[in-house]
User: Fold this.
Amino acid sequence: LKKNQILVTTSTLGSNEVFQKKYYNTNNIIHQYAPIDSPQIIKKFFKKWNPNIIFFTESEIWPNQIFYAKNNNIPIILLNARISNKSFIKWKLIKNSMNKILNCFDLILSQSNESADYFNYFGSNNIKILGNLKFVVSEDFENKEENLNLQKRLVFIALSTHPTEEEVCIKIHSSLKSQYPNLLTIIIPRHINRIPEIQKIIINTKLNFLIAESLDNFKNNTDILIINSYGNTKKILKSSKYVFIGGSLVDHGGQNPIEVAYNNSLIFHGPHVHNFTEIYNFLNKENIAFKINSGAELINQLKEKINDYQNKNIKEKIIRMGDEILSSTIKELDQYIVN
Assistant:
């Protein structure tokens, strides 16, 4: 890599699509799919790109990449480091191996006290707790004229949904439609390749639905709008004050709620949010996130909040927290960055 160039690696088509939309005309930021973690492939990959420093994020642990970098004196940093309880239980079975892998890192910046305790269990060195970088939210300054039809609708968003969760939200729409005739439910599945199976569920109802990339072309009689692209989520989230975040009624561990909270929207989530425990605890205490255990509970919560909506303003607090965490992270990284 040339000086001041950044190589970003990801492993999914969706992440590549998001990257291309955001950085399509940025010359010094390059995207590649992550190499298979085998010694031969890793050696070729590193010789091609010749990195000066490597950043892994959260719990992305690729042993062959890590060992190759360590053996070639390339600094390795684990950003926003996290070990979930589920991963900790698995990693305990190979404690000695995890000790060798984690001690290759020059610096581990843990996002929480819990994760730091887990890293310490494996004898990791150079651990610092700075907070969760997910509190850093980039503002979208694009001022696009709002859809006038959307302003007349009561919008409920089901975000990052997983199998069975869409069916719950579709049933909720059917249940609430008579009481709120202007209700529009927007489903943004975690994986858009599942849209055909979601479509089959809706076809069995009497609801009108539309599959689209954005909010631009939905019709007045649309009940359910399914979003079939990545990258528009941030704009779409601004259209609603009521958002269910998926991966939480099923045992997935939840999805990141910060962007939703950033819009001062009310968040509804199931019991399975162990991947974001500290964030949800914070939002629950701020009375902007509400735990539900079933579709019936979600219906009751929605009715209560719609009928007695209380405006929340947590955005400024999130911005302050994000700025502090980002500033502390940059300060820690300064010594490793070659100018």
